[in-house]
Design brief:
54% of the residues lie in helices and 6% in strands. It is mainly α and 134 residues long. A three-stranded parallel sheet has the order 1-2-3.
């Protein structure tokens, strides 16, 4: 993370993972984030937003993986006993089971404070995959 006024530190603001410009000048265009407040009090808010975005992405990935695994296992079991689902059954699952869960996931609230634990830096860690599969 890099904080600056955007005048003489444009390169550092551009290359930082989270560059915050603390000025409203034209040089602040170099930074991905600009704060109207002239101090670093915006850093915790930026960290909460970034962690929230990462966690929401990981949860979406888990949901998609779980849905694919559950439907794949269902289809495999049905093929094993010699039957198959028809189109309206797939439509029922998507409209009445998956779609409401997706809408409910959109209504989850974010946290008001930072936790000491850092979120995973990768989407494909063994912990994420194992909690999705098992």
């Amino acid at each position: 993370m890099m904080c600056g006024d955007g005048a003489n530190d444009c390169t550092a603001l551009k290359t930082a993972d989270a560059g915050i410009s603390l000025a409203d000048s034209e040089a602040s265009i170099a930074a991905p984030f600009t704060s109207k407040v002239q101090d670093i009090s915006c850093v915790p808010k930026l960290l909460m937003e970034g962690r929230g975005c990462l966690e929401a992405t990981i949860l979406s990935l888990r949901f998609i993986e779980f849905y694919a695994i559950a439907e794949g296992m269902t289809i495999a079991c049905l093929f094993y006993i010699g039957t198959n689902m028809v189109d309206w059954q797939y439509l029922y699952i998507d409209l009445f089971l998956v779609f409401p869960m997706t809408i409910l996931q959109c209504y989850t609230k974010s946290s008001d404070s930072l936790t000491p634990q850092m979120p995973s830096a990768s989407m494909l860690t063994s912990q994420i995959i194992s909690t999705t599969v098992f």
